[in-house]
User: What shape does this take?
Amino acid sequence: MKKKIVGMMMILAMASLAAGCGNSKKTSSDKGGADNGKGKIYYLSFKPESDETWKKIATEYTKETGVEMKVVTAAEGTYEQTLKSEIAKTDAPTLFQINGPIGYKNWKDYCLDLKDTKLNSWLLNKDMAVTDGDGVYGIPYVEEGYGIIYNDAIMKKYFALPDKAVSINSTEEINNFATLKQVAEDMTAKKDKLGIDGVFASTSLLAGEDWRWQTHLANLPIYYEYKDKNVKDADTLDFKYADNYKNIFDLYLNNSCTDAKMLGGKSVNDSMAEFALGKAAMVQNGNWAWGQISQVQGNTVKEEDVHFLPIYTGVEGEENQGLCIGTENFFCINSKASEKDQKAAIDFVEWLFSSDYGKKAVTNDLGFIPPFNTFSDSEKPVDPLAKEVIKYMSDSSKKNVDWNFTSFPSQTFKDNFGASLLQYAQGQKKWEDVKNDMIKDWAAEKSVVAAN
Amino acid sequence: MQKVLKKYFLVFTLPTLIAFAIAFVLPFVFGVYLSFCSFRTVSDTKWVGLDNYIKAFTVNKEFFNALIFTVKFAIVSLLSINVFAFLLSMVLTRGLKGTNLFRTVFFMPNLVGGIVLGYIWQCIINGVLSKFGTTLSYSSSYGYWGLIILMNWQMIGYMMVIYVAALQNVSPDLIDASKVDGANAFQRLRYITIPMVMPSITICTFLTLSNSFKLFDQNLALTAGMPAKQTEMLALNIYNTFYGRIGFEGVGQAKAVMFLILVAAIALIQLRFTRSKEVEA
Assistant: This one.
């Protein structure tokens, strides 16, 4: 009797489990059929600041085409985590993004070949795409640039001073590190007259807030090293331009509005607020920062006063160096999604970059500088920093710096370098050690990543 | 009756057993299995044997450092929390005026979530340190003592409540008898009160020890491992390995399994030890 009950219960349990599994599968495919064979789109977005905009675009797209579209945005700095857990689900993202060749290595099992899409054919510069053999697996959807953002109102005030120590008369005349250093140091000496706390906004070195230094600024010495060696990636590094990095990093630290020992508690938002409130005259960041600057309460920076200055580090021939322009945002289509869903995702991105509504949303609402030939000159973004980037892009006398940091070994490498920089800023680590650790870590992380 | 119960045993327990299996046993077994695999997503795995366990120690020293830091933290917080909680409960069982108010006040921090507490204390400590021109991230010892203070502040009230309940249960007869026998206050504490509240000491040491080992939110919010991962504890290290490093998901899982074994072992040893000191009244 007992055995019978046990047996019956087991069978019941199994049956209910099996039924449960069967059911869920069935409903998901049912759902697929329900949207008129058009497939559906699930976009996992990277930028928290434009979450609303993406949702608006999705609603509009559904209205126009009837294709169901879901947008989820990962919280700041958690994109890889979110993608990792989302992609394991039955309803996985069909459209997601990677940050370049390193990101591609991690996600190549999930990237569809996009060589034959219209989107790929629209690319202005085909070299920008993430490729592997013949295939195109990641298509850049935005171009971005960074440099030193300055507030011209303060700079004009400085250049109007009768006792200034430099002979030049405007910020545009700064074209190498020596001049920049002279100006910065003289401004620090006269900071009371200029009404600023320091020339540069805080060098934010809080963990997770140090990407402007361990990634963006570190791009410059790597760019020059790659250029010397004529490569795009390297297993080992000489960090030949380490002293140039030190030049600019020291300049930021010594002429900052914050004491170097306090930098471990500063975030990017803190620095942007300092700049927006006029406490600092310069801050290193990219064109995406305009939104942040203009939204700070009590913002004193006028739209016509923000401009870019290239990051000079004292490398020979840097007089015609431009901004650092590139991208780390590449669209990918989930290769493990159903064909219908893949097509839906491709249709969506092509709509986004070719339809009138899509193009307007891209340039005006998202503020992107799109790297596609479907945009005419009148359809470019209007915010002051994006305009500056476009100006540098079209200025043939300037040689813009590529974003070589997409080849940095791993996030761990960047984090370790950032931690090193913090200890250097706090006076706890010698520059020699920072440099050697960076070289060692580069090689170690490259081999760890390769072994995976 | 017995027979009837036996007959329907499965009818009543099976639903719970199934729920237990689905929500606990299966994920647990799957988790251990994953620690022997290389994977990006949990639905797509490849068996690699002990590779992950080796990597946990060989790729870098983070895990080992986190272990040392956690042990140091656990010992100090175990002692300080229990000593302070016991002293407080002694004071608050003397029938002083406002006892209830104080008990409530001391218990309150326990009701605030760890992440929130971490950020609050980060502001407080950074505020104090800024007077000396520095921040929490300057040195790992700042973060260490910051965590100790934070945990004490949060846990003392909770442990105090347990001790208060135990102290109130110590029979006044025993105290009176010892007084008649001429025991002084210290002797009464040593030979009557402490042995009588030993079960509570077992519970409190267990709670503080296991909580200290498993500490995560407070660690994440207060220091996030700064500077240079020197204040990273085991749980945070596991999280960072699993989520922060592509290709290291299996290593994170292996670390988690080792972590489980370690915490279970320590908790069992500690329970045995304090249990052996318990007495019957």
In short: The mean pLDDT of chain B is 88. Chain B touches chain A through 34 residues (CB under 8 Å).
